Amino acid sequence: MKSIENLKNIENKNVILRLDLNVPIKNGKITDTNRIDKILPTLNFLIKKKAKIIIISHVGRPNGKIVEELSLVPISLCIKDKIKKEVFLLKENIFKINKRDIFKSSNYEVVLLENIRFYPEEEANDDKFSEKLASLGDIYVNDAFSCSHRDHASVSKITKYIPSYCGIQINTEVNALDKITSKIKKPVTCIIGGSKISSKINIIKNLIPKFNNIIIVGAMANNIFKYKGLKIGKSIYEKNIDKIIHEIFSYAEKNDCKIYFPKDVKVGKRLNDKSIEKNFENIEDDDLILDVGSKTLIEIKKIIDSSSTLLWNGPLGYFENINFSLGSSEIAKYIASKGDNIFSVVGGGDTVAVINALNMSNKFNFVSTAGGAFLEYLEGKVLPGIKALN
Hints:
The protein is built from 14 helices and 17 strands. It has 390 residues and is of the alpha/beta class. It folds into 2 domains: 4-169, Rossmann fold, CATH 3.40.50; 184-378, Rossmann fold (3-Layer(aba) Sandwich), CATH 3.40.50.1260. The strands form 4 sheets. It has a 6-stranded parallel beta sheet with strand order 5-6-4-1-7-8. A 6-stranded parallel beta sheet has the order 11-10-9-15-16-17, sandwiched between helices. The longest helix has 14 residues, at 168-181. The model has no long low-confidence stretch (mean pLDDT 94).
């Protein structure tokens, strides 16, 4: 991908900047600015180069209709506060906007177009709409990795009509993911959790030939316990997936990748219960498995000690209840303590929430907020937004 950091002269040029500013908004107030904070390096780079910036983004799923609650007004005010410059929210219909008029009557350096998903043509990846968007600028920059698995007009097709580059954040994200999928420093370990093993099967299969260790935790592990004939009480599990689990163990054995799962667990009778550590033989019929036990934490720490690269996607337990958050917080702190001895990448909303709650996001080499794009990249899928920039 060609990076904007290699561009020489962009002074006074209209730069269309695709960002993912889909942040949580409650009562008109942004509750988490993480995604906005991450794109500030690209925004400040373009401002320093004296470019005229036209931001394209979205919030929510308006399904091609104007929904006032999903306006980008709070986003424009937040960006203004972050960069200490005026940001003009342009609400005019895109089809009526001309390139020469965008900055004609104002001193603004940054213009934010209203929610791009107010237009049905965006998600339809419409040719004419893509061409119209491209006509507003001289250069297109994609710095929205988390949208790059979408084949949408402002993400992929626009690149047909305008010189296109990647932003600083998207470059950082792709480089970090490359380090754990193709440019790997071994031994490499993956800690993977979630509620359904079937939803992560393609990721696991893609990583097995590349990774030395895969540690399956969270509710996903319940399926393995069940497969191995261990007691799980009334814990959630998926039915009819023995074949998938057999496939995982068989494929891992062929590729010399070790599959680990918890040796002991912490249980409660309810989600809001206190935790009790148990071995599997002591689990009762009305027990819920909600965290890993102390023997498991010792084993995971030993595996981390012997790893050079680590990917973490999915908490170890029901971290929403502090009584079952110890496994996740202990492992987060342990990985962070390794410093430069390990290259660590964290992704997935719940996992990011764990490390944010501990104020430790700066202790990991890379923290991805990309969600679906992050997971699809790990599956080995070609992301339309990335392909369009190559």
